[in-house]
């Protein structure tokens, strides 16, 4: 079965600083990888996803992530943090051609300091 | 994009009562819907997978008689928490898959259940 590990349950950055949220996955078959953002008392919003093709994926709100097979990683980055980026972020993995089994990481809470 | 709604967004009930939560795909037909549970400051845990017209598949440790799932149409799935207890208090989130984009689950806004 596939799984995801998010390193760091809490990340704090200053406004304007680089955001780096780490995600490592484990999968016996080619994975599909996702990053979601969750604001308090709300559902999940898709930031970006990797399925096939280009390994550098650009998403909404200036976020991007790079699929690195050799490192089994899918880290999320944003060059310059904004106050509105403060939220909970989840990395998730499914198996290629089978989205019935999505596994989420434990989540990383991003705090942005003024 | 595909939109999924949940109703109610928030519900408070007394211990021992049953609560029904609806999950609707508003602009697409959902062949498969999922129900997740999220405790405070924790990740989403899959409870069950439901396919239209068939019985739901429950994850290990989830009581199917307590969490009744019905997926009677391609746009509606319901989760009924029967004889609710305070430990059932949680945030319940549904998601849906479509034929047109089976790479992605579309998530509802969630339902906050509080059992007194």
Describe the 3D structure:
The complex is a heterodimer of chains A (114) and B (116). Chain A contains no helices and eleven strands. Chain A has strands at residues 3-7, 10-14, 19-26, 31-38, 44-50, 56-58, 64-68, 73-78, 87-95, 98-104, 108-113. In chain A, the strands form two sheets. In chain A, strands 2, 4, 5, 9, 10 and 11 form a six-stranded mixed sheet that branches. Chain A has a five-stranded antiparallel sheet with strand order 1-3-8-7-6, with no helix packed on it. In chain A, a hairpin with a 5-residue loop joins strand 6 and strand 7 (64-68). Chain A starts with a strand and ends with a strand. In chain A, 35% of the residues are buried. Chain B is mainly β and 116 residues long. Chain B is built from no helices and eleven strands. In chain B, strands 2, 4, 5, 6, 9, 10 and 11 form a seven-stranded mixed sheet that branches. Chain B has a four-stranded antiparallel sheet with strand order 1-3-8-7, with no helix packed on it. In chain B, a hairpin with a 5-residue loop joins strand 4 and strand 5 (44-51). At the A-B interface, strand 4, strand 5 and strand 10 of A face strand 5 and strand 9 of B.
What share of residues are in beta strands of chain A? over 45%
What string gives the helices and strands of chain B in order? Answer: EEEEEEEEEEE
Regions with little confidence, pLDDT below 50 for 5+ residues of chain B: none
Taking all Cα atoms into account, the compactness measure Rg of chain A is 13 Å
User: Structural class from helices and strands of chain B?
Assistant: mainly beta
Assembly status: heterodimer
User: Tally of extended strands of chain B?
Assistant: 11
Number of strands of chain A: 11
Structural class of chain A: mainly beta
Biggest pleated-sheet summary of chain B: 7 strands, mixed
End-to-end Cα distance of chain A = 41 Å
Strand content of chain B: over 45%
Low-confidence stretches of chain A: none
3D shape of chain A: globular
Secondary-structure element pattern of chain A, one letter each? EEEEEEEEEEE
Terminal residue distance of chain B: 37 Å
The major sheet of chain A is characterized as:
6 strands, mixed
Tell me, rounded to a whole number, the average pLDDT of chain A. 92
The whole-angstrom Rg of chain B is: 13 Å
Indicate the percent of residues in helices of chain A. under 10%
| Largest contact between chains | A-B, 21 and 23 residues
């Amino acid at each position: 079965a596939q799984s995801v590990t998010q390193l760091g349950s809490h990340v704090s950055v200053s406004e304007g600083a680089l955001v780096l949220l780490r995600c490592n996955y484990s999968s016996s078959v080619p994975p599909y990888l996702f990053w979601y953002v969750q604001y308090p008392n709300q559902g999940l919003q898709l930031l970006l996803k990797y399925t096939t093709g280009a390994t550098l994926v650009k998403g909404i709100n200036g976020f991007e992530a790079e699929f690195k097979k050799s490192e089994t990683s899918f880290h999320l980055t944003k060059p310059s943090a904004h106050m509105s980026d403060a939220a909970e972020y989840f990395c998730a993995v499914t198996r290629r051609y089978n989205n019935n089994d999505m596994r989420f990481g434990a989540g990383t809470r991003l705090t942005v300091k003024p | 994009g595909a939109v999924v709604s949940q109703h109610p967004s928030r519900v408070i009930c007394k211990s021992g009562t049953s609560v029904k939560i609806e999950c609707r795909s508003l602009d697409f037909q959902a062949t498969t819907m999922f129900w997740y549970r999220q405790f405070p400051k924790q990740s989403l845990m899959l409870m069950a997978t439901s396919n239209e017209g068939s019985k739901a598949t429950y994850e290990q440790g989830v009581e199917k008689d307590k969490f009744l799932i019905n997926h009677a149409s391609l746009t509606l799935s319901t989760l009924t928490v029967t004889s609710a207890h305070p430990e059932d208090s949680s945030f319940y989130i549904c998601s849906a898959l479509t034929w047109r984009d089976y790479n992605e689950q579309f998530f509802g806004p969630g339902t906050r259940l509080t059992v007194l």
